[in-house]
């Protein structure tokens, strides 16, 4: 298995590294023994990109970076390291230079936009009683409840942080659209994917939480990126 690249997984808003649990298990089943899941602070794009870069720099050999949701903005900002061979976006933001996740969201607000609320300390939360229908409607109520209770809220200011030099302009890209996404409008996902000229785009009949509800399909796309950049 030593010839396989390291897979580095980057989570988004309202989650943590554990959101990748089903993908991690599926990758392991397929023979990937070098997998890392970054735990980002969600305090600013600069902070999260630096945390991701530090993880990637500790890896010897090729790395495939995979970002979910806001994690796509993070890999866009942090994916310029020379041993990153591919970028894989899972229902994710892929901003261009000068764009922010918040700006992209405002262009075409998603269905669940109204279910996000700030607290008195400047953090944004998905209302717990709306989490299932907003983020993960294709998961069981119990699985969504755990996600809702354990969600990690970002600082609201992070939504406005702009990408500086998008790595997707220089790296091969793969993209997965969630057609039933209520957190990022599916048409925004399609638009972001199309302008990156990806090697492959797949559409899944899935919620924003496709990494949890459709892990086999997500890993299929990651493997396509692995095979497409081998050697």
TrEMBL record:
| UniProt xrefs under PANTHER family | AB HYDROLASE-1 DOMAIN-CONTAINING PROTEIN-RELATED (PTHR37017), ESTERASE_LIPASE_THIOESTERASE DOMAIN-CONTAINING PROTEIN (PTHR37017:SF11)
InterPro entries per record:
AB_hydrolase_1, AB_hydrolase_fold, Sec-Metab_Biosynth_Hydrolase
Organism for this UniProt entry: Streptomyces tanashiensis
Keyword field: Hydrolase
Q: Does the keyword Hydrolase apply?
A: yes
Q: What is this protein called?
A: Alpha/beta hydrolase
Does the keyword Cell division feature in the UniProt annotation?
Answer: no
| Limits of the AB hydrolase-1 domain | 7-220
């Amino acid at each position: 298995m030593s010839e396989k690249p390291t897979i580095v997984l980057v989570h988004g808003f309202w989650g943590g590294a554990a959101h990748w649990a089903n993908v991690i298990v599926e990758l392991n089943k397929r023979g990937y023994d070098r997998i890392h899941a970054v735990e980002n602070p969600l305090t600013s794009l600069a902070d999260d990109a630096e945390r991701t870069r530090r993880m990637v720099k500790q890896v010897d050999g090729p790395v495939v970076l995979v970002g979910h949701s806001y994690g796509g903005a993070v890999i866009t900002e942090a994916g310029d390291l020379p041993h990153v061979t591919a970028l894989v976006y899972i229902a994710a933001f892929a901003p261009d230079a000068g764009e922010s996740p918040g700006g992209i969201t405002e262009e075409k607000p998603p269905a669940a936009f109204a279910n996000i609320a700030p607290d008195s300390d400047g953090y944004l939360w998905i209302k717990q009683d709306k989490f299932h229908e907003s983020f993960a409607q294709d998961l069981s109520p119990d699985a969504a409840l755990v996600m809702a209770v354990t969600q990690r809220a970002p600082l609201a200011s992070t939504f406005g942080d702009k990408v500086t030099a998008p790595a997707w302009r220089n790296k091969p890209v793969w993209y997965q659209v969630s057609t039933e996404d209520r957190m990022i409008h599916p048409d925004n996902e399609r638009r972001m994917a199309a302008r990156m000229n990806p090697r492959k785009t797949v559409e899944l009949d899935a919620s924003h939480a496709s990494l949890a509800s459709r892990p086999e399909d997500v890993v299929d796309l990651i493997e396509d990126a692995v095979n497409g950049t081998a050697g």
